[in-house]
């Protein structure tokens, strides 16, 4: 049984897909997709030995070794050309790490049609990478579970240029259009955090910095959306 967070990621994996789940830990996501006959093949990639062994154990226990390959590898290095991966899932990490994994594995992205990404924080930097690498957002979800808010970004390869505004990068074009209660609550909280950060910087009486400018720009964007 998957968490609501991972089930949401899984819901955007196309039927019959060949998936690489990077940073798979226990391989719960590819295992669940395989058990539900939603995918035809998966690679579960993990860079740390302990979680990799968890993945191996899980896949053996469920007798899924013919469908799910577990690999000890850094990022997209888990993917080999023969895998013919068409979908990549990366969940449960910070946005900057997801971006780093995508940026350092561009050779393995050839043939990949869909990315399903779930940054715990910093979705903005992930959207920025997508925009500059011919991936177009096709859906977004925001959900709350166990006191955390999670965003799921679904992007398909495109041949036409996509441009997102500063607000769309920060909030997500689909999430911004939807403005769900979870979204509003998240950004009310982020507004308070940004305001507290600005107050601290101002009380420290240091010369205005790029950090202060960035925080104030963010506050203006959030206020514009919450109004
Ligand atoms: N994807 C699962 C989920 O969403 O529940 C596990 C998330 S877990 C918090 C993040 C996992 O990513 C850890 O097991 C960590 O070892 C792995 N990881 C971090 N950097 C990685 C990288 N460069 N390549 C592969 N795995 C990585």
From TrEMBL:
Identification of the protein by name: tRNA (Adenine(22)-N(1))-methyltransferase
SUPFAM superfamilies xrefs: S-adenosyl-L-methionine-dependent methyltransferases (SSF53335)
Listed InterPro entries: SAM-dependent_MTases_sf, TrmK
Gene3D superfamilies noted in UniProt: 1.10.287.1890, Vaccinia Virus protein VP39
Domain of life: Bacteria
Organism encoding this protein: Lactiplantibacillus daowaiensis
Pfam families in UniProt: TrmK (PF04816)
